[in-house]
Amino acid sequence: NLQESESENRLDGETASDSESKSEFGGSAPVPTSDDTPEVLNRALSNLSSRWKNWWVRGILTLAMITFFFIIIYLGPMVLMTIVMCVQIKCFHEIITIGYNVYHSYDLPWFRTLSWYFLLCVNYFFYGETVTDYFFTLVQREEPLRILSKYHRFISFALYLTGFCMFVLSLVKKHYRLQFYMFGWTHVTLLIVVTQSHLIIHNLFEGMIWFIVPISCVICNDIMAYMFGFFFGRTPLIKLSPKKTWEGFIGGFFATVLFGLLLSYIMSGYRCFTCPVEFNNDTNSFTVDCEPSELFQLQEYNIPLVLQSVVGWKTVRMYPFQIHSIALSTFASLIGPFGGFFASGFKRAFKIKDFANTIPGHGGIMDRFDCQYLMATFVNVYIASFIRGPNPSKLIQQFLTLRPDQQLHIFNTLKAHLVDKGMLGSLEEA
């Protein structure tokens, strides 16, 4: 009976081993949260119930964030990449701060310094790879950049190894276990935050539409699931998030798929959204001008016989990208929310309401981007699996950096291959 009463007093999902770990590491007192709603909104909404007050606060701040999102899209890809970097740093700061406070890591030598140092090392590695990949001609043109590019991975490893040695030297008696725990905490945070933000940058270079549509679908699903759940929600969806309902989950799915189709149709007609982001060596700036691929050219599709009697059409004209948008919006609606559920479980484990109080009514930056990181990975995998093929321009760039004898060997190999295929004669005649 005593054991049963002790288990009832714990939080949902908390085990005896959790409690033992907490006592060993100094306990996990809840991180205090305060009402960070602006005073002007508190006065304006003072006559409303807490439920409706929260609805209005979330709504107003959501509109403000969407407006800011439109502004940074208008400012172009460089600003978008800068914002992604800032969001990544803020998310890392929020997660590291939770570990720092909950496990009372104040006395651990160099903990925060090493955490930020490892963030710097990982960013240097990932963004250095990106610079070498997308700014290849610029890198080859500048001698210092060419040297850094050539030895990039060795330099990255040396930087990380320095941090690793610093961590070993910082180990102190009576804190070994906690120090290794926080070492793992830092690296898991880096894996979740930095790797995913790096994939977002890669998606952006494939074309702004691959960046905007997935993010917008997640935002739409979050808003519509909240709206449907607020007005029609009756059936709880998952214990990790008691406020989530089946009505909101299902309503958000259909609304997001429809939104994805409409947004994709609008954006597919503009080259500034569909063209890959490339670096122009003549102007030393980014360009998004190209001949649209087949994905962004209207095609005529036959409507299944079952639906012809319902809609009254036999064919429909749409962009092939809209078909892909169904896959993106479906993932954003059905799988994307599990990123939020994961974050909810994380917060419940440490008895905190939000990751931070950065955005009134919404919590921290990580509270808003918990689903976005999962979405970024899916989009990157989807592009690699179904969209992206070999890039001829990048292959030529790499070919031109080879030694003359290596270039001649590749030329002869390609010539022999074309002759065997019977293509060389026809090319010469043309």
From TrEMBL:
Its main location: membrane. Residues 7-23 have a biased composition (Basic and acidic residues). Pathway: Phospholipid metabolism; CDP-diacylglycerol biosynthesis; CDP-diacylglycerol from sn-glycerol 3-phosphate: step 3/3; Lipid metabolism. Its EC number is 2.7.7.41. It comes from the Eukaryota. It holds the Pfam family CTP_transf_1. It catalyses: a 1,2-diacyl-sn-glycero-3-phosphate + CTP + H(+) = a CDP-1,2-diacyl-sn-glycerol + diphosphate; 1-octadecanoyl-2-(9Z,12Z-octadecadienoyl)-sn-glycero-3-phosphate + CTP + H(+) = 1-octadecanoyl-2-(9Z,12Z-octadecadienoyl)-sn-glycero-3-cytidine-5'-diphosphate + diphosphate; 1-octadecanoyl-2-(4Z,7Z,10Z,13Z,16Z,19Z-docosahexaenoyl)-sn-glycero-3-phosphate + CTP + H(+) = 1-octadecanoyl-2-(4Z,7Z,10Z,13Z,16Z,19Z-docosahexaenoyl)-sn-glycero-3-cytidine-5'-diphosphate + diphosphate; 1,2-di-(5Z,8Z,11Z,14Z)-eicosatetraenoyl-sn-glycero-3-phosphate + CTP + H(+) = 1,2-di-(5Z,8Z,11Z,14Z-eicosatetraenoyl)-sn-glycero-3-cytidine-5'-diphosphate + diphosphate. One of its GO terms (biological process) is CDP-diacylglycerol biosynthetic process. It is an enzyme of class 2 (transferase). It is found in: Membrane. The chain crosses the membrane at residues 110-127, 154-172, 179-201, 207-233, 245-267, 321-343. One of its GO terms (molecular function) is phosphatidate cytidylyltransferase activity. Residues 1-38 are annotated as: Disordered. One of its GO terms (cellular component) is endoplasmic reticulum membrane. Keywords: Lipid biosynthesis, Lipid metabolism, Membrane, Nucleotidyltransferase, Phospholipid biosynthesis, Phospholipid metabolism, Transferase, Transmembrane, Transmembrane helix. It is a multi-pass membrane protein. Belongs to the CDS family. PANTHER family: PHOSPHATIDATE CYTIDYLYLTRANSFERASE, PHOSPHATIDATE CYTIDYLYLTRANSFERASE 2. This is Phosphatidate cytidylyltransferase. It comes from Tricholaema leucomelas (pied barbet). The gene is Cds2.
